[in-house]
Amino acid sequence: NSLLKNKCICSCFSTGRVFVHEWAHYRWGVFDEYSSDVPFYVSRNSEAASVEATSCPAGVTGIPVFQDCSGEKCKPRSCRYDGQLYEKGCVFIPDIRQSISCSVMHMQFIPSVAEFCDKNNHNTEAPNMQNKMCNHKSTWEMIMESDDFRNSAVLNASAPPSETTFELLQTRDRTVILVLDVSGSMSMNNHIGHLRSAAEVFLLHCFEIDSWVGIVTFQSDASEKAPLQQITNVTVRQKLVQSLPTFPSGGTNICSGIYKMNTTYGSEIVLLTDGEDSGKAACLDLVKHSGAKIHTIALGPSADKELESFSKLTGGLMLYAVDGAVPNKLTGTFSAITSGSGDISEQSIQLESKELVVQHSEWMNATLPVDKTVGNDTFFSIAWSLSQPFFFLRDPKGKEYRSSDFTIDNSNMKTARLRLSGTAEAGDWQFCIKNVHTAAQAVSVTAASRPARPDVPPVSVAVRGKSANRFEPAVLYAEVSQGFLPVLGATVIATIEKDGAAAVTLELLDNGADMVKDDGVYSRYFISLRGTGRYSLKVSAHGRDTTTRLGLKRNRALYIPGYRENGKIYMNAPRPEFADKEIHSFVDNTGGRSAPIYPPCKITDLHARMENKTIVLSWTAPGGDFDNGKDHYIIKSSENLLDLRNRFDRATSVNSSNLIPKEAGREESFKIKPENFIIENDTIFYFAIRAIDDTNLISEVSNIAQATSFIPPKASVPFDYDGNDGGANSTVIVAIVAVCGAVVCTVVCSTLCFTKTKRKTR
């Protein structure tokens, strides 16, 4: 009965609230109000400083517990102090019956919890992500500031105005129609040849089995080259390849291609053009109501400036391919168009895409790592701009594939491909290429593969970009993950290209210079190239040996270590240990977007600690222009957290004139001497920083860090695991009291006897 009761309280009550918790993350961008990293903190909410659990609201009742384990047997005991806080491994066990109704973003498993914390009950002191990332505002305040509620009227009713409805959607076979420009402008820079080569790879290697594919071409009018047909084998793929265009002519009429399509709700359209069409607005309304998703590919610098309007109306991808001597840039752009079904087990993953100008008689050597999570349906491709080079491919065991093992299509004599049967050998593959042409030429190599097993997700990269505006530059994001787990410690390099400008490479960071450290999202501000227009973004991620590992997903519902009911503690099974796992992989993805001088970015990882009555601050240097270059700092302190947040300029200044700023991304450390502060027991100091660059542009106020001068009690209060809450074992207490009483009685009796004897003697 106890086991059944335990399961019921921990799961039956909380399932719906877990859904609301995760929905609030996804929809409104709020953060957790607990902290696994800092489960306890020193609070000043009471008259004297005390150690409290990181919670919202403050005052959640419960008990700190440490699991003493010997082998597989564990017994909870009281937590001991280690410095100012409890020892590592101490967890907070809440009472299952609470008098509070919030918060869903903290203890969603408590039966009485049905609300978010608001400004009236929010715990601004708690060192959780919600306070750190949202400037100590409550989750309800942030939700009310979202687009969903910002302009909505408050409903004072006991029931919602309408019932919530849910739709159950089921995936179906993917349907994609290629709508390709074959107008006269496609003859420029060999666009038609690059289109055919890139689309060939897309058809032969990227589409999943059972997908439906059709091909439409347009110039002054449109033509259906291949009706919708299901990809069931290699023969169907090759038949589709034969339908790809080879000869360009005529004008550019995008709407003629749109009208020619036979689309259904949920289908995808890949619309590619390199020219302009002033009459494209005529079919925008049809596109809007078609139910199809349109992915646009702008090829070269002269593609229609409003082409992306088709994607914006339908929620499709907005892609851009820079002109090049070989087709690998367009091939990479096509590879970014993957299925949205969520099933990655059949998706093609690009392992490498590299282009280089090779001088006469020189070698180009490329390493193509194939990790153990991929290897099925692997293909390698080499392309050249002038004449075929000498080349060979060597697998990790030393087996070599010569040019005679590769296939060259008669319709595309400047590309050779090798498709492997079975599962490719895991490890480093070496592509060795020598330019035997009399002059320098461009050479590119490409590799792609599918997951080796359906139950083991591959390492993958999801790339996103936020366009620049007057107030901030473009932001580049790359989420590196294996399934739902973030990949940490990877080297992530972004390559940004624009027609008419040299390519720029930028290392993306997940080290605290970005918003959240070690969450698998690598990011960076991009301000190197100037001017508006389209940019192409490619990201490569790789890891080696023990530098790369899998981490735990951040921002998720709280794991319940146990609970207390009627004074008795019920411990749940411990969360399974997550062992670091070595991984290594190359993954490429392509997208595309990017101006003035910008201020330094906000510091989000400021920490403060007390060392022998010296306060030590540490943070990641943000850089002068957002996350680039150097800057200097304004450091402020206060004994009131909200005063520091709301009136930073009026707070007490900290002299940091001897602090020499470091380069962006490096760790800064600064010690504050005791003479600057009166440090007494139970004193809490709050600190915040603003960074200033050499043009006096100032960053936003950082997160607020806490340093505490607090001497905890010498001993922790023991408890009885079996239910006698708040005291030691009753038998031991009775025994101690009895012994003490006996000692007191003996002393008193001895004293009386001595006094009486002495009187008699007198």
UniProtKB/TrEMBL annotation:
SMART domains: VWA. GO terms for molecular function: intracellularly calcium-gated chloride channel activity. It comes from the Eukaryota. Residues 175-337 form the VWFA domain. Pfam families: CLCA (PF08434), VWA_2 (PF13519). Keywords: Membrane, Transmembrane, Transmembrane helix. The keyword Membrane applies. The chain crosses the membrane at residues 732-754. GO terms for cellular component: plasma membrane. This is Epithelial chloride channel protein. It comes from Leptosomus discolor. The lineage of its organism: Eukaryota, Metazoa, Chordata, Craniata, Vertebrata.
